[in-house]
Amino acid sequence: MAETLSDLDTFDRKILNVLSVEGRISVTELARRIGLSKSPTQARLKRLEESGVIRGYRALCDPIRLGRDHIAFVEVKLSDTREAALAAFATAVMRVPEVEQCHLIAGAFDYLLKVRTSGMTGYRAVLAERISTLPHVANTSTYVAMQAIKEEGLSPIPPTTPS
Question: Could you tell me if residue 125 is left (phi over 0), alpha (psi between -120 and 50 degrees) or otherwise beta?
Fold first, then answer.
């Protein structure tokens, strides 16, 4: 059974908050920080992983140092919004490596994409050769980000849920 925020106790929340900042911390150090011994901390960690609350671990790379500092947000309007068309678009957009995020939107357009490239020339090529050719794309609108103010993952989880 998948856990939800309301299923998590104070120790689970502490584990998630520490790991969200320091994913490579040792279990011994994690246990020390949350105030439990190593065995119960390992058991909780395993439960959080198996239930899908913790989906995985990864390195956060600096996109600027990797030459991918150009961010564009792209509104995508589809010509067909039946389930088969949405599924075809969703499957195809997953194969575009420059698309960092893709969200189905309730509004004047259908999808909002976050696209990261090395610059405007690279972005224009991705838009023309990849995004515009995705299934059922009718039109797009681009908004170029001038500066990223906040871009990290989730904020810390509160120790208890408000009633």
Answer: alpha
Q: Is 156 left (phi over 0), alpha (psi -120 to 50) or beta?
A: beta
27 vs 145: CA distance, rounded Å: 39
In angstroms, the CA 68 to CA 124 distance is 14
Model pLDDT for residues 56-84, shown as the tens digit of each residue: 998 888 888 999 999 999 999 999 999 99
Nearest Cα to Cα of residue 152 among 26, 23, 53, 66: 23
pLDDT in tens, 116-128: 999 999 999 999 9
In the chain, how many H helices and how many E strands? Answer: 5, 4
pTM for this entry: 0.79
